[in-house]
Write a structure and sequence with these properties.
Structural class: alpha/beta
Strand order of the largest sheet: 3-2-4-1-5-6-7-8
Strand content: 5-15%
Radius of gyration: 21 Å
Bound molecules: guanosine-5'-triphosphate, magnesium ion
Distance between the termini: 19 Å
Order of helices and strands: HHHHHEHEHEHEHEHEHEEH
Length: 296
């Protein structure tokens, strides 16, 4: 995906923030005009505390010039985002490398698995998908469609089955086939009475019994268009099961993409990828510099 496409996909959040900068510069009275930027940042879901801090920093040595204000905001945001730039590395010799994909329902887990599988296969890796979301049969079918599309096997049980047993079979099957990477789908919700976090812990235990150190990555998917909810989910999942990497999806078509800033700042967990569309190629490795340049 060329940079121009990334930029156009992030346009709504970009426009929201730039609107704030233009309001500051266009304000003739100048008194308190930085408030317009603070409000714009809050509207872009940067969060109240972070927005206030950014604006306080920008007030120091402020020059009445749109480009210098944009540049300083960009530098500040880059400073926060660079700390969570750590692309997912598959260490040589770790086989199978097990990635457990977590997140509440509808955030884009299964789609992200499909995109990731395609990415890995393109890079010459063998991939196996585990249909650990046994909550609904459509979820299993959706994963199978991705498997066919990308050309990788899918290990599944029937709907309502035990996700731990699916994880077990997936990992065992990967070991016997000498597969490089296992992507485990999980449910975002469960039938009442079953605790999601307990279920996820159980899957982790099952996997780690078969492959030491696995799952090697607990990849949390959050929907960037839900703003503060995404931040709250990240905190909850991290406390309950431990998150080693984050994917922020649906950054296209939302003005709330500023949520990436508090997610980076408060969790300090690597952001591995961003989702900027529904297509197979619409998953991009997260790089702080280009992301900041596309955003601001
Ligand atoms: N615009 C956009 N849509 C996305 C993106 N990622 C996923 N989607 C869409 O979001 C919807 C939900 O995606 P799923 O992958 O089914 O989400 P899930 O987390 O697996 O959901 P459950 O299986 O119900 O828990 C689908 O319509 C996807 O096409 C993205 O980056 N951008
Ligand atoms: Mg799903």
């Amino acid at each position: 995906m060329p940079f121009s496409r990334l930029k156009s996909r992030l346009a709504r959040t970009h426009n929201a923030i730039m609107g704030g900068i233009q309001a500051v510069i266009g304000n003739n009275t100048r008194k308190d005009s930085m408030e317009s930027l603070e409000e714009a940042l809050i509207r872009a879901d940067v969060g109240v505390t972070t927005a206030m801090e950014i604006v306080d920093r920008l007030k120091e040595g402020f020059r009445w010039d749109e480009e210098s204000l944009r540049q300083r905001l960009s530098d500040y945001v880059y400073d926060i985002l660079k700390d969570v730039e750590a692309p997912l590395e598959i260490p040589y010799g770790t086989r199978p490398f097990v990635i457990m994909v977590l997140g509440v329902n509808g955030v884009g887990k299964t789609t992200t698995i499909g995109k990731l599988a395609s990415r890995f296969v393109t890079r010459g890796k063998s991939v196996l998908l585990g249909a650990g979301d046994t909550f609904r049969s459509a979820a299993i079918e959706q994963l199978e469609i991705w498997g066919q599309r990308v050309g990788c096997p899918v290990v599944k049980h029937s709907q309502g089955g035990d996700p731990g047993a699916v994880a077990f079979d997936a990992v065992r099957s990967a070991i016997s086939r000498n597969t490089d990477i296992v992507l485990l789908d999980t449910a975002g919700r469960l039938h009442t009475k079953v605790n999601l976090m307990e279920e996820l812990k159980k899957i982790k235990r099952v996997v780690s019994r078969e492959v030491p150190d696995a799952p090697h990555e607990n990849l949390l998917v959050v929907d960037g268009s839900t703003g503060q909810n995404a931040l709250n989910q990240a905190k909850l999942f991290n406390e309950a099961v431990g998150v080693t990497g984050i994917v922020i999806t649906k950054l296209d078509g939302t003005a709330k993409g500023g949520i990436i800033i508090p997610i980076a700042r408060e969790l300090k967990i690597p952001i591995r990828f961003i989702g900027v569309g529904e297509g197979v190629d619409d998953l991009r490795e997260f790089h702080a510099r280009e992301f900041t340049e596309a955003l601001i």
